[in-house]
Amino acid sequence: GVGGVVGAKIYYAILHGDWRLLLERSGLVWYGGFVLGTAAVVWTMRRRRLPPWPTLDALAPALALGYGVGRIGCFLVGDDYGVPTGLPWGISFANGLPPTTAFYLRREFGYELPASVPDDTLLRVHPTQLYETAIALAIWLVGVRLLRRGLPPGRTALAVFALLALERFGVEFLRVKDDRLLAGLTLAQAISLVILVAVAVLWRTVGAAGPPAPKAAEARR
Predict the structure, then answer these.
(1) To 10 degrees, what angle do helices 155-171 and 128-148 make?
(2) Rounded Cα distance, 179 and 25, in Å
(3) pLDDT in single tens digits along all 221 residues of the chain
(4) Which residues, in sequence order, are CB contacts of 69 under 8 Å at separation 6+?
(5) 0.90 surpassed by pTM
């Protein structure tokens, strides 16, 4: 929704230290959208007096699906790609944002390449956008399956959040990034770790909060 888009733009502006980027059409960051979007959903639930955890359970699989579809857009635009690779499925983005030339990889991301590689060399990179699409679709299927099992309220949502955090944490190792922090971890990986810790803390509390949710088949009766 609107909260997700606004959050994604704010995160992008903060990441680049330039608030003027809020007015540009491009520049959306997933975790910014996730945080503010989740806050907007929680506010809406409280306003409409919807049960928090069952509502999040119903929405979580769709979140994974939307993330996967969104990454297809990143692939088509040619941004959020990975580091150079010699694997057969490596892809070059001649018109990417930015293009995957040695010049831009060095200048925009500080990626180290041998000095013998000319700046105008177009390099093939990991299509991490497609990796994320495939994994996100798998998480969506897992979320739908968990939802139908009738787990205690909140368990499905927490499982999906944890899987998405693990997915992002892992794929970031293949991304070409310029925001690597302590121990070479990116800001997105740091946020992923925070989410995983939060899920671990909430898991037992949520599991003991109430009876299992009705299974999908039972709910239709």
Answers:
(1) 170
(2) 22
(3) 454 455 555 655 666 565 565 556 555 555 556 666 677 777 778 888 889 899 999 999 998 998 899 899 889 989 899 999 999 999 999 999 899 999 999 998 999 999 999 999 999 999 999 999 999 999 999 999 999 998 999 999 999 999 999 999 999 999 998 778 878 899 889 989 999 999 999 998 886 655 566 555 444 44
(4) 133
(5) no
